[in-house]
Amino acid sequence: MEKKRVLIVEDAAYMREMLAEMLEQEKDRYEVVDFAVNGKEAVEKYKELKPDLVTMDLAMEVMDGLQAIKEIKVYDPNALIIAITALGTPEQKNAALDAGAGEYLWKPFTIKNLFDALEKLQRNGEE
Amino acid sequence: MESTRTKRRDHRLLILSFASFACVILALYFASIGTTIVYTHLFYIPLILAGMWYKKKAVYLALLLGAAHIFITLSYIPLSAAILMETSERALMFVVVSYAIGFVSDKWAKGEEKLKETTDYLDNIIKSSADAIVVVDTDGTVRSWNKAAEDNMGYTADEVIGTTNTKFFAVPEEAERIMKIVQREGELKNYRTTVLNKAKKPVHISMSAALLKDKTGVPIGTVRVSRDVTKEEELEEKIKDERDNLDLILESMADGVYIVSKDYKVEFMNKVLIDVFGYHVGEVCYKVFHNRETPCPRCKNTEVMKGKTVRWEWYSHREDRTYDLFETPLRNINGTISKLTIFRDISDRKRMEDELRDAEERYRVIFEHALTALCVIEHGEVVSLANKEFETLSGYSREKIEGKKWTDFIADEDMERVQNYCEERRKGEAPACCEFKFVSCNGEIKHVNAWIEPIPGANRCIASLLDITELKRKEEELRETCERLTELDKMKRDFLNVAYHEMRSPLAPIVGYASLLESCKLPDKGRRYLYNIEQSAKELDMMINRMLQLATIDGKKIDLILEEVALHEVVQEVVKSVGPGVKKKNQVITTAVPEIEVQADKEKIAAIFSNLISNAIKYTEEGGRIDVSVEEREDDIKACVADTGMGIPEDHLPYIFERFYMVDTSLTRKPGSLGLGLSIVKEYVKLHGGKVWATSEPGKGSNFFFIMPKRQR
What we know:
The complex is a heterodimer.
Chain A: E1 4-9, H1 13-24, E2 30-36, H2 39-49, E3 53-57, H3 65-75, E4 80-85, H4 90-99, E5 103-106, H5 111-126
Helix pairs in contact in A: 2-3
Chain B: H1 2-33, H2 36-42, H3 44-53, H4 56-67, H5 76-86, H6 89-128, E1 132-137, E2 142-145, H7 147-153, H8 157-160, H9 173-185, E3 187-196, E4 202-213, E5 219-228, H10 230-252, E6 256-260, E7 266-269, H11 271-277, H12 285-290, H13 301-305, E8 310-316, E9 321-331, E10 337-345, H14 347-369, E11 373-378, E12 382-386, H15 388-394, H16 398-401, H17 412-427, E13 433-439, E14 445-455, E15 460-467, H18 469-517, H19 524-555, E16 562-566, H20 567-584, E17 588-592, E18 597-601, H21 602-618, E19 625-632, E20 636-643, H22 677-687, E21 691-697, E22 701-709
């Protein structure tokens, strides 16, 4: 089975590393293609690398995650993006889903939560 | 000679007798026509003849005595003696007869003469009198009867003169009685009696009589003047009836009425007075009414007796009562004047007047010292009265306020509004209160609350103004404070939202790396450490979650995301999630939830059960028991989470659903509790239109109940 290429968008370095470490646990299925530290960079890197999946933090400087999701979706309507945020309000969740995120993950999350969400995102994308 | 003398003597005797006889006849005649002077002297003719023929000396003596007149009758004695000495028995007989007749006629003629003189004297008066004038002599024989008497009695003078007067009286003894009175008293005045006229009908008369005496003072008769008073008596009767009627009226009057005579004798007092004072007719008024020994100093008797009508007010200190007196003269039948007094006890009226004055004074004081500014407005324009507070409010003195236009006190921009309000108040339509800007003396604007109340029955109203300038200022301050606080509250909420978010961010790597560590090779000790880290992180996450939930509730209105929720599934999930805690404390948890679906927000229903069950676990000792049950009812469900824990003291029960409320705030309290769980439960149940409550028996356990409708409206 082909490895899924994942773009990690996170402004906090320890979070970027943690996500990479988690994906390393399933290295047969996922590989990290690159990191982006803000929305703007995320959009640029998405266009450049065309990853299969994106983990997108919502609270970031320069360009926030919601805006980035929208722009990526404009570029590639089929993009599979998982929104990650600490702000667990229903409004925030709905805003992310409306912007085009396929899944939504609350901080804090365990490794299990992450892979469940990724699986779900891919299943939804195939349907 | 002897024989010649005797012959001559016989001849002379015959002449003498004849002369005597003629003189007696003449005397009788003159006596009958009342000329006594003439006939008295007639007797001298035979006397002179006898003297010339028989004894000149005796004749002269007789003449002498006759001249003395008074002794006229005595003169016959020597004359008779002279004749006796020289003549026969027949001559003596003639002289004796002459003497006797002369004596009788003289006496009779004398009386006749006096009476005749009186009669002559009165004749003219009597004839023209309207009153009946009758002369009755001492025997009761009528001697005179005038025209008026004829008219009154129906008898003519011819019919009654010379007859007795007894027959005229209804009671015959009356004639005798009257005569006696007149003889005793010398007169009789206004004597009332009843006589019978010719037709035997009674006639009421008033009689006055006087005694007639001769020159020597011997009573010779009475003259009686009588007036027919039948009509008068009828009138008197009528007047008496009228008086009786008047008395009846006076009797029934509610006012006190009494009549007193000129000498203060009470002649009448009506029932009202008798009830108060008792019956005292005949006694003196000042004694009866005032218990005084002398007439009252303010008595109006003298004035009234002069014909004046007076009205005055009398205050009795003794009784502490006030009377309104009306006093007027009252003419009696007998011509005297009495004083009629009508008096009314006006103490009650006076008292009412006093009370009215008191009440007015009271209201004036209230008006004057009221804490609101009060003024009376005439015809909706002019201020006619203002109180002290109005002076304070307006800054004008009272003299300047009264007479000022009401509109001068109203700011221009409020004028129309206030006038509309006044107009509507007059119609009774507008609300009682109107706020406007009041212009005081130096143009300073004050905010007032005004009540305008029309005064019934007059085109005026009373305005009550409350200075709310200070209140307005405070209100403004309060509003500003409130705004600032709201602002602060929003800032705080925003801050907390950010803070909760920022707190979660560092939690993410803790939880994340811990989960990564699980797959690493770790010594048993390390694995135990990891477990503790994970549990702590989880608890911290839960607390932050709750705070976030509450912050969301506070911040804005929450819309429920409604869906069909299978209650038993939600409960199972919650029970499963708390499973490790239950297991750790060796507790037993049972569920009895019917397989029903309700319309609700799934996340919130889950939060409700989660909070209740977590609480139960937390406050129940190891080995305890927790029972979760749901009862389906007609329109709603009733859920219960029961535990066998420490329970809640009764005095805390009403407050446990309050935010941040903690039964135990000491350091020994249960860890991991911010007092938020139950308040979230309460808010979420409320959002679903339900309610929550708890019962507890300290030491035995608590029961938490909530009900919520199956369908949301």
